[in-house]
């Protein structure tokens, strides 16, 4: 929604945001339906402001880092609240996510080691069958 009007410089259409972030308009509408972003309406047209764009950045970053929509929603609910509450919630959720990922990494390393052992045993049996 580019225009000579300085006020509209901070306005984005759903197509603008979809293009900028490489996501579908359907994804943006989904986040809207979940209450994560709240565009204004001009008739039937959604108009997103800088705040919606910033929230969308946080949503996409949260999803990329593996946070649930519930976690993202909780964080965004504090977006305009006390900064210390927001930081505390973020630190708590990051710690939980790190713990989960570290456990998954340990599990993967164990699985990889077991698979290598099985592969080596299988190759030994092919090379020197009993």
Structural class: mainly alpha
Q: What fraction of the residues are assigned to beta strands by DSSP?
A: 5-15%
Number of strands: 3
- What is the CATH-assigned architecture of the largest domain? Orthogonal Bundle
Q: What's the rounded overall pLDDT mean?
A: 89
* Helix percent band: 55-70%
Number of domains: 2
**Dominant shape:** elongated
- Report the major sheet: 3 strands, antiparallel
Measure the end-to-end span: 74 Å
Q: Please trace the helix and strand order, writing H or E for each element.
A: EHHEEHHH
Keywords: Coiled coil, DNA-binding, Transcription, Transcription regulation
Pfam families: MerR (PF00376), MerR-DNA-bind (PF09278)
Organism: Devosia crocina
Coiled coil: 84-125
Your description of this structure?
- This protein is mainly α.
- The chain folds into two domains: 1-66, Orthogonal Bundle (Multidrug-efflux Transporter Regulator, Chain: A, Domain 2); 81-130.
- The chain contains five helices and three strands; from the N terminus they run E-H-H-E-E-H-H-H.
- The chain has a three-stranded antiparallel sheet.
- Helix 1 (14-21) crosses helix 2, helix 3 runs antiparallel to helix 4 (69-77) and helix 4 (69-77) runs antiparallel to helix 5 (83-127).
- The N and C termini lie far apart (74 Å).
- The model is unreliable at 2-6 (pLDDT under 50).
- Keywords: Coiled coil, DNA-binding, Transcription, Transcription regulation.
- InterPro entries: DNA-bd_dom_put_sf, MerR-type_HTH_dom, MerR_fam, Tscrpt_reg_MerR_DNA-bd.
- This is DNA-binding transcriptional regulator, MerR family.
- It holds the Pfam family MerR-DNA-bind.
């Amino acid at each position: 929604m580019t225009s000579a009007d300085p006020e509209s410089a901070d306005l984005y259409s759903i197509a603008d945001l979809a293009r900028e972030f490489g996501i579908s308009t359907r994804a943006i509408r989904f986040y809207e339906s979940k209450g994560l972003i709240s565009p204004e309406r001009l008739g039937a047209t959604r108009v997103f402001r800088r705040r919606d764009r910033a929230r969308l950045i946080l949503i996409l970053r949260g999803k990329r880092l593996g946070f649930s929509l519930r976690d993202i929603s909780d964080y965004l609910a504090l977006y305009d609240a006390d900064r210390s509450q927001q930081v505390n919630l973020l630190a708590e959720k990051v710690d939980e996510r790190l713990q989960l990922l570290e456990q998954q990494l340990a599990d993967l390393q164990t699985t990889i080691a077991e698979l290598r052992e099985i592969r080596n045993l299988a190759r030994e049996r092919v090379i020197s069958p009993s």
